[in-house]
Amino acid sequence: MNRIEYEEKAAALTQEINRIEWLEEDFLSLKRKHEERVLDLQSEFHHLSFEVEALLHHVPEGSPRKYIDLQRNGDLKWQMDHYVREHLDQLSHHATQIRHQLDDEREERIRERNRLTWE
Known about the structure:
mainly alpha, 2 helices, rod-shaped
């Protein structure tokens, strides 16, 4: 391979390495935004749940519906918290897999570029 071919291939591989790094940065940014939105959803749900609970405390003590609704509200809070934990755990797992895949691709391109020789 002559010097010009070497420089063209090295530049193309460098561009590919940069593209992979940008993909990783974009992915991590999207992941953070998604995590924030899920946590915002959880926070909003907790706020609404608190408001429902406050309203239920104004219902007379003898009402059987009050205790059923308080229990359901607590169950819904638990379900939401469980969903958020599971979702964020899965997201973290998938993010790790993607980061490893991108790292492997980047390292392969770096090795390809380092193997280039010219005469």
